[in-house]
Amino acid sequence: MGQSTQLLQLLLLLFMQYLVIAVTANNATNDYLGLLSLKDELQNTPKSWVGADPCGGSWELINCTNSRVTSIILISMGLSGKLTSEIWQLSELQILDLSYNINITGQLPSSIGNLTKLVNLNLIGCSFSGLIPGTIGNLKLLSILSLTNNSFNGPIPASIGSLSQLYWLDLANNQLEGALPVSNATAPGLDMLLNAKHFHLENNKLSGNVPPKLFSSSMILIHLILRSNKLTGRIPNTLGLVQSLEVIRFDRNSITGPVPSNLNNLVKVSELYLSNNNLSGPIPNLTGMNSLNYLEMENTQLQGEVPVSLFSLPNLQTVLLKNNQLSGFLNISTTYSTQLQLIDLQNNSISSYVDTIGGYNRKLILEDNPICESQNIKSSYCTVSQPNNGPSYSTQPNNCQPISCSSGQVSSPNCLCVYPYSGTLVFRATSISDLGNSSHYTELEAYLMKSFEKLPVNSVSLSNPIKDFSEDFKIRLQVFPSGQGCFNRTGLSQVGFVFSNQIFKPPQGFGPYYFLADPVPYDCYAETKKSLGIGVIIGAAVGGTVLLLLLLLAGVYAFRQKRRAERASEQLNPFSQWDPNGGSGGIPQLKGARCFSFEELKKYTNKFSEENSIGSGGYGKVYWGTLPTGQPIAIKRAQKESLQGGHEFKTEIELLSRVHHKNLVSLVGFCFDQGEQMLVYEYVPNGTLKDSLSGKSRIKLDWMRRLKVALGAARGLAYLHELANPPIIHRDIKSTNILLDERINAKVADFGLSKPMGDDEMDHVTTQVKGTMGYLDPEYYMTQQLTEKSDVYSYGVVMLELVTARMPIERGKYIVRVVQMAMDKTKVLYNLHEILDPAIGLQTSLKGLEKFVDLAMRCVEESGANRPAMGDVVKEIENIMQIAGLNPKAESTSASYSYEVSKGNSGHPYCNETFEFEYSGAFPTSKIEPH
Q1: Which sites bind ATP (predicted)?
Q2: How many Å apart are CA 704 and CA 711, to the nearest integer?
C-alpha cells in the first residue's frame, strides 16, 4: 500500500512538472506565432527573422527576458502593411515602437488592449486611421502613449483616463473629434491622469467647451498643448489650480471671454499662447508669473491699456499683442525686464507713448497704431515687422574641406561621404526671440551629440530654421553614421528611439518637440550570410524531412524541454562554473548579483573596443556596455598582472552585492571566466569627482553642488559604517572613487580594499596598510589598526579637495598643512581666498563655508578619537546646507540614468522635469519617475 502511494505521488509530481514545462513552452510558442503574424502582415521586416526561437539572438530588434519577447522596436524600417490583430499573443511585451514607418496603415487593432504588460506604445509618424480602440484603457502600466502624426479620427477614448501610470500623452496631428473626455459616475476621463506631465493634443478637430473638471490642484501637468482645434467657451478658472504648468497653448481655437485672472498663480509658466481666439476684456494682471518669458496673445479682441507691470516680469523676452483693440497710453517703465527683446503691438489703437530717457531700447513695433501719426515717435517703431526667422543657417564643416559625393550620399561636417538619417525637428513652444543667432543652433547641435554619444553617430548637421504660421519652430536635421557608410537596422532604431521616446532633451528656450523622420532612401541593413543560410537550410529541411519531423516530434520536444530545464537550472545556480580549484574559497554568498560569461560581456561591449573604453587605471580598464534589457553598465576588467586572488575577488563581490544605498555604486554582476576577473557596475555617466574638480569633465561645481556632493558621499559612508551588517570600512576614500550621476548625486565606488568588521573586531581591524597616499590616515599608517575613523580622515581630505580643487599632495605640499597654515578664523572665509577654487563661485556668497572647513579639519585630526563619526558628519553637513539655503531632504532623492540640463532663473520646462530612460543598443527600456 505504501509503495502504491509513493508511486502515485511520483506520478503526480511528474505530471505537475510536465504541466509547468507545457505552459512555458506554450507561452513561448504564442510569442513565436504572434511574431510570425506580424511578419506576415508587414513587408520589409528584417531578413534575420528566421528560425523557431525569436529569443535565440538572431532576430534583430527583438528583445527577450527569460525567453519571452518584451520589446519590438522597428523604427524607420520602411515597413508597410498593417499591424496584426494577433499582436495579443505577445503577452509579455513591454515596448512596441513602430515609429516613422509612414506606410503602416489600417486601424490599431482592439487586441492591443490584451498587452497588459505594455509600458511604451509609440506609433509616431505612421498612417494609422480609424478609431483609437477603447481597449487601450486596459494597459494599466502604460507610461508613454505617442500616436502623433497619424490619421486617427473619432473621439478620444474616455478609457485613457484609466491609465493611472501615464506620463506622456501625445495624440497630436490627427483628426480626432468631439469633446475632451472627463470622468463621470460611469466612465473615466482625462482629469483622472494625475501622474501625467504632458497633454499634447494639438492639430486635431476637438470641439466643445474646455471642461472645468479637466483641471485640479492634484495634477502635476507641465505641458498643456491644445492649439489648432475647434474648442469654444471660456478658459476655465480651474486652470489656475495646476501649479506645475510650464507651457500653455490654447492658440488657434474659438475660445471666448476674458483671460482668467488666476493665471497669475501659475508661477512656473514660461510660455503662454492665447492667439487667434475670440477673447475679450483687458490683459489681466500677470505679475505673479515670474517665469514667463514668451507671451503671445495676437489676433484676439483684448481691450484697454497695456499694463505697465507686464514689462517688469523678470524673465520676459517676447510680447506679441498685435491685431487687438488695445488703446490708450503705452508706458514701458525704466524697470522693464533686462531680458525683454521684442514687443509687437501692430494694429491696435495706442494713441500715446513717452520714450523716457534710458527707456526701452530694444525692438518695439507700433505699426498701424494712431501713435504712428505723431511726429514725436521714432520711425523705427512704426516699421512693418519682418518675419523673425533670421538668416539661413547651416552647420559648417569641422575644419575640413567638403568633398563631392556620389548620388544619395552627403558630405558630413567631418567631410565624409555617407548616407544620413534625416528629418525635421518641430519645437512646439519656442521662447527664443532672436532666431538669427547662430549660437542657438551650435548649442542645439551639442545637445544632440550628447544624446548620441553612446550610439554609432559621427556628427549631426542642422539647416533651414524657420517659424511656420502656427509659431512652431522647425529645423532640418541630418544624423551621420560612424564606422560605415550608412546606418544598419540597429543603428537606425537606436537613433530613432532617442526621438520617439524623448530621450533627447533640447537646450533652454527650444521647448517640447517631436521628430518627423524622412523615409530612409537607402538599404544598408546588415544581413548576415549566416542568418540567410539558416533560412535556406530550414526551408530545405522542412520540405525534405517533414515526415521524419512528425515521427520524431515527441523525442525532439522532450530533448528541447530537457535543454530548457538545464538552462533554467544554470540560471538558478549562476556559479555552477565557479573554479573549484582557483583558491577562491568556494562559491560567494551573493544577493542579487549576476554571474556573466566572458562571451556575454564581450558582446555587450562591442568586443571590448576602444570606442567603449571609458577609463583606465593600475588595475586595468573600464568599459561601457549595454545589457539586452537596455541597462547601461560599466565593466571593470582587470589586466592579467592585476588579477586578485580568488578570495579577494570573492570578498569584493560579496561586499558589493549586499550593500544597497543610493550613494553607493550598485553591483550588477561579475565575470570569473576564461581567466578573466571583471566587475559589472551600474553606469554612472558624469565620471569622478576628481574629473569635475580638475576641469576634465564638463561638470561645473558651484558651492551648492559641492555641498550636495559632500552630503551624498557622507551618507554613503555612514551607511557602510552604521547600517551595513557587519559594518564595512572602505579603506580607499578619495575623489577618484566618488562618482557623479546625472543629477550630480555622489556615489561611492571601488570596494576592492574594503574590510568588514567581524563580531570580534568591534574597535579595529589589525591589517596590512593599504590605501592612497595623501588620503591615508596617519594613525592607521603608524599602528596598522584600521578603524571607521580611518575613512573619516580620508573623507576630510576629500572635503578640503572640494573647496580648493587641489590634489592632496601637490608640489610636495600636503593639503591639510596648506589649509592649516592659511587659516585665520578672525577674517572673512578664514582668509582662504588664495587657495579656494575660483570655480566655486567666489563672486557669490559662500554661506556655511567656514563651518564646512571647521568640519573638514576635525575629520583630519591626527587622533581618530577626536574625529567625528560619519553619522555626525552627515548631520553637520545637513545643517550647513540649511545655512546655505538648501533643503538637505530634497537632496536625498536620486535616480540613475536620468539626464539633467543646467537650469537658469528663466528655466525651460525641459530643464525642470525628470523624464528618464535606461537605454542603449536597439533595446532600451523606459524608466519614468515624476519629479
Answers
A1: 636
A2: 11
